[in-house]
Amino acid sequence: EAQVTQNPRYLITVTGKKLTVTCSQNMNHEYMSWYRQDPGLGLRQIYYSMNVEVTDKGDVPEGYKVSRKEKRNFPLILESPSPNQTSLYFCASSMTTPSGELFFGEGSRLTVL
Amino acid sequence: DAKTTQPPSMDCAEGRAANLPCNHSTISGNEYVYWYRQIHSQGPQYIIHGLKNNETNEMASLIITEDRKSSTLILPHATLRDTAVYYCIVRAFSGTYKYIFGTGTRLKVLA
Questions:
Q1: Which of A32, A47, A95, A101 to substitute to test the interface with B, most B CBs within 10 Å?
Q2: Could you read off the pLDDT tens digit of each residue along chain A, which spans 113 residues?
Q3: Which residues contact B95 (CB under 8 A, 6 or more apart)?
Q4: How far from the centroid of its chain's Cα atoms is residue B23's Cα?
Q5: Which of A44, A50, A101 sits opposite B49 (nearest CB)?
Q6: Do A88 and B41 lie within an 8 Å CB cutoff?
């Protein structure tokens, strides 16, 4: 089954404790992206990647890092989480074609105390 | 990059057609219009997309105006399970991709 898998789905952590949210897709997609969703603000892009070793900032990259060492994986790293990073996070992937639809993961709800 | 404007909320009676408008007046010639929906806090689900022509699939129809400055998503026979937030997105097909999400329209289908 074609899917985007995120882990963990739920996480409560404390300020400053480094964490990684993993994202993996099994569709051989070139494009992958991370979004955060906050009440009243819709989905905002954090980082995206056009292919292996190619990443770029989205609209809200501060406080986050990403890497794309393999085509299927695109982890989101919070080096020193802060309470304002409490949010619902989504990973997505697509083909890099005109009709490439975005496939989303189920989301990771992160709480930083 | 083009941005989209949608009404914050709409109601629709069950069994009737739901028509969700989207304004994208700054859209460029190579930008596609996509529609997604999000049920509760699940991952957004793809519905349909188009460039210039009207499109139809098993879920919905997409009507794009001739000047491409606006579009309408039509759910022909809305059911209670169609209650969700609907996002209209434009995406440029160029050197990089940027999917610009707005805050969407919260559609409530009423029994």
A1: A101
A2: 889 999 999 999 999 999 999 999 999 999 999 999 998 888 899 999 999 999 999 889 999 999 999 999 999 999 999 999 999 999 999 988 767 789 999 999 999 99
A3: none
A4: 10
A5: A101
A6: yes
